[in-house]
Amino acid sequence: MKLVIYIKEKLAFIFSMVFIIIAIYVMGYACKIRRDYMNVLALIIVILSVFQLLTEYLRKKKFYNEMYNILEGLDQKYLLTEMKLNPNFAEGEILMDVMYEVDRSMKERLNEIEQSYVEFKEYLEMWIHQIKIPISAIKLMNYNGNIDVAKQLVQINRMNDYVEQILYYARADAPEKDYILKKCNLESIINNVLLQQKELLLGNRIKIQKNNTDKDVVTDGKWITFMLGQIINNSVKYMDKNKESYISFEVVEAKDKTILTIKDNGIGITIKDVPRVFERSFTGENGRKNNVSTGMGLYICKRLCNKLGHEIDISSVDGEGTSVSISFGKNDYYLK
């Protein structure tokens, strides 16, 4: 710590001492006090002020020089807070407290980034394994000369779903850069999703039911289209082949929100698995039995709903079916 910088910092204190000394002489002359008394008093103030300034300067200089020397010797500068630095002045203690807090926050953020990287790497490995299945199916069809266009379209759509899933997973951390909130018609969005999933639904003979779906909500059509596609895919994966399958869409108006419910009559989810369906990579008991689930679809839907300000809930009865509800908050500004 340079002396010039320290003196500049203490100019206010120095000027205040000079003002006090001048005031002593002015008041002394006014009160007819002997000059030598005033000189002694002024000298005492000067000595005490210089002693205070010098003592504080040496204390701070020792601390900052020690801190800079340690910093220069560290390859990883962020480890400075791990060193034993004990300032014996208030500003130094405040500085160290701030540095510890910044360091703690940085480590937490780095841990989050590292965890996110590990999760994405694990998902990518699982995704590669999953997408190889439809690719192998198409290759096998062509190898055997069994060109079934309908079956190939199902596999191609399956690959497209996997590609979309990883794309939305990658964007889920910052969807605010990619979405626009505006008035959207649920009837149109549902029809668009059903058209995209046509081969899948027809191939599995899934009946579609709609009730009161011609409603406007505030959302991003692209994101909701993706989420509905994931929910429909889950319904098909967990369909009960022993009964006639259906997927229903119903909209209910509440005072402060519009609720879209997608319901199926598939094999359902066990009661112990329902609370965990939105967890990353959780497939549940039925998912492990069928070996068709990645456990990522509902996880991504939950993350996107959180970012968009929507609520998503699920209920299910094992062996009877599953119901997924998405709640859209009402916003008159966007709906006008």
Secondary-structure blueprint of this entry?
Layout: H1 3-9, H2 11-30, H3 35-72, H4 90-144, H5 149-171, E1 182-185, H6 186-196, H7 198-203, E2 207-211, E3 216-219, H8 221-237, E4 246-253, E5 257-264, H9 284-290, H10 297-308, E6 311-317, E7 321-329, H11 332-335
Parallel strand pairs: 2-4
Antiparallel strand pairs: 1-3, 4-5, 5-7, 6-7
Explain what this protein looks like in three dimensions.
This protein is an alpha+beta fold and 336 residues long. It has two domains: 86 residues; 226 residues, Heat Shock Protein 90 (2-Layer Sandwich), CATH 3.30.565. The strands form two sheets. The chain has a five-stranded mixed beta sheet with strand order 2-4-5-7-6, with helices on one face. A two-stranded antiparallel ribbon has the order 1-3. β4 and β5 form a beta hairpin. α2 runs antiparallel to α3, α4 runs antiparallel to α5 and α8 runs antiparallel to α10. The protein is elongated, with a radius of gyration of 35 Å.
Q: Compute the separation of the termini in Å.
A: 63 Å
Report the principal-axis shape.
elongated
Structural class assignment: alpha+beta
> Could you please say which CATH topology of the largest domain applies here?
Heat Shock Protein 90
Number of strands: 7
Uncertain stretches: none
The CATH homologous superfamily of the largest domain corresponds to: Histidine kinase-like ATPase, C-terminal domain
Order of helices and strands: HHHHHEHHEEHEEHHEEH
What proportion strand?
5-15%
Number of helical regions? 11
Mean pLDDT: 83
Rounded to the nearest angstrom, the radius of gyration is 35 Å
Strand order of the largest sheet: 2-4-5-7-6
What is the domain total for the residues? 2
The helix fraction, in percent, is 55-70%
Main pleated-sheet profile: 5 strands, mixed
The CATH class of the largest domain: Alpha Beta
Q: What's the architecture of the largest domain, going by CATH?
A: 2-Layer Sandwich
